[in-house]
Write a structure and sequence with these properties.
Keywords: Repeat, Riboflavin biosynthesis, Transferase. The chain is mostly beta strands and 219 residues long. It contains 4 helices and 13 strands. It has a domain of 79 residues: Beta Barrel (Elongation Factor Tu (Ef-tu), domain 3). The radius of gyration is 18 Å and the shape is globular.
Amino acid sequence: MFTGIIEAIGTVRALTPKGGDVRVYVQTGKLDLGDVKLGDSIAVNGICLTAVELPGDGFWADVSRETLARTAFIDLKAGSRVNLEKALTPTSRLGGHLVSGHVDGVGEVLSREENARAVQFRIRAPRELARYIALKGSITVDGTSLTVNGVNGAEFELTIVPHTLGETIMADYRPGRQVNLEVDLLARYLERLMLGDQAAEPSASGLTTSFLAEHGYLK
C-alpha cells in the first residue's frame, strides 16, 4: 500500500527484454534506499513493482506482460522521469489517501492551462472508470494522490500547485500524454458491496441504472 505522496523523481536507465516481458532499472535520485530490501515494493508512476536487485543508486524490477498491457509503462524509455514512492510502513503518515499501486486504466491529458501560480489539467479517463470519479474526491495520477476539482462525463480537472509540480513529473505533462490512473479504493469496494448476493453471479460486473432503480436508489 502507498499514500500517493511522491517521495522522489527517478529516471529510467535501462529497459531489458527478458523471457517475454521486461526488466527495468530505475535510478532513484534522492529516494532513500537505506531501508529497502530485496522483495520490497516501490511504486513507479503508480505501478507497484518489486525490487529484485539493489545495485546502490537504484533498483531493478520485473514488469509483467499484464502490467505492460494495462498501464502507460509501455511509453517509458531510457531517460524517462518517473514518480517514486516506497511502500507504507506502520509509522508512515497518510498524507494522501490509500493507494494500492494497481493501475485501473490509462488516461490522456487533454489540456494544460496556467491558473495563477498553479496549472490546470484536464484528463480523460477510460469510460468504465468515470463512475468512480467524483467532484472533490481522490484520484491517483501516475502515483500522485490528487483532488478532483471538476468532472464532466469521463473527463476531470486537476489544479496542481507549484510544490506538486516541482516534486512530481506533472511539470512534464502536455496534451496527448498517457497517464496511469487508480481510482479511490473505497469507491470500488462500495460498488461491490452494493451488489450484495449478486456479486457472486458471473455476469456481475458493476452497478447499472436498472439495478439501482430495482433496489430503490433511483426514483
